[in-house]
Design goal:
two-stranded antiparallel sheet, mainly alpha, 2 strands
Length: 239
Amino acid sequence: MNEPRTKRGEQTKAKLLAAAEAVFAEQGYQAASISRITERARVAQGTFYLYFSSKLDLFEQLVDDLNRRVRKAMSDGAARGANRAEAEREGFREFFAFTAEHPALYRVVREAEYVSPGAMRRHYERIVEGYRDGLTRARAAGEIGDVDPEVAAWALMGVGEMIGMRYVLWPTGDDGAFGSGATPVPDDVFDEMVAFVQRALGTAAPTAAAATGHDPTTQHGTSQHSTTERATAHVKEDS
C-alpha cells in the first residue's frame, strides 16, 4: 500500500475511497469495476494504482476507512456525556447520524464477510475493543452494574446495528439501490432503545433533563472522568 506523500495525493486517495463507497453500495463488489470507480472519482485509471494494488485492496482499505470514521463519530458523541449512561446515548446518536449519512457502511461490511472475512472481523473487533475497555472502567467506577464487559460490548454493538438497519436503511430501501438512501431513527424508537440499553447496563433511568443532555449527574453523583477520558470510554478512534 502506497501512502500519499502530498496533500494533493491525500485528496486524490480520499476521492477514490468516496467513489468506491458509492459504487460498491450501488453495484456490489462483484459488479463494481476499477474503471467505474475512477470515472466516479474523476481521476485517470492509472492514478488508481498509485494508491491501491487491486480492487480488493481498495475494498479492504474502504472497510478500514469507514471503521475509523464511524468510531470517530461515536467517540465524539460519547465525549458529550458526563457519565456512562449519557455516553451510551450520545455515542449511539452519532452512530445513527453517521449511518444515515453513509448507509454504504452496511453493505460494504456485509459484503466483506465473503470478499474479505478478515476485514469484516477487524471492523467489529476494533469497535468492541474500545467498547469493552470503556465498560470495564465504568464498572470499576460504579457507573454500570456487574456485567461482563466483553459480552455487553458485543451485545450493544448488535443492538445499534440492527436498530440502524431497521429504521435508518429499510424505510427507503425500495426507493433505489441498496445503501442509497437513509432516514433518521425516530425519537421514540431512539428513546426506547436507550432506555433498554441503560436497563441492561444497570444504569439509572435518565431524568427529563438528562434526556436532553443537560443533567451532568448520575445515581452515583457527578462523574469523576474528564472529557478526554469519556471520549475514549465509548470506542477507540485509533487503529
